[in-house]
């Protein structure tokens, strides 16, 4: 059984953190967008899409910075 090098472990951990972060921030953006859609914007779809997009974008930027370090 081959040994996994330490750098591969670190990269795997970073990817796992990125995927988890993407899920959490996208769902949080979706939740905020749905609350705004229900309370303020009279059930329009664009706050849901915009909130999810913002969450995914912030997560992507954070992941990009983390992987380039």
* Radius of gyration, CA atoms, in whole angstroms: 17 Å
Number of DSSP helices? 2
Mean pLDDT across all residues, rounded? 89
Query: Which bin fits the share of residues in helices?
Result: over 70%
Count of β-strands: 0
SS-based class: mainly alpha
Task: Walk me through this protein's architecture.
- The chain is built from two helices and no strands.
- It is mainly alpha-helical.
- Helix 1 runs antiparallel to helix 2 (46-68).
- The longest helix has 34 residues, at 6-39.
- The two termini are 30 Å apart.
- The model has no long low-confidence stretch (mean pLDDT 89).
Task: Write a brief caption for the model.
The chain has 69 residues and is mainly alpha-helical. 83% of the residues lie in helices and 0% in strands.
What's the topology here?
Layout: H1 6-39, H2 46-68
Helix pairs in contact: 1-2
Based on the model shown, name its key terms.
69 residues; single chain; 2 helices; mainly alpha
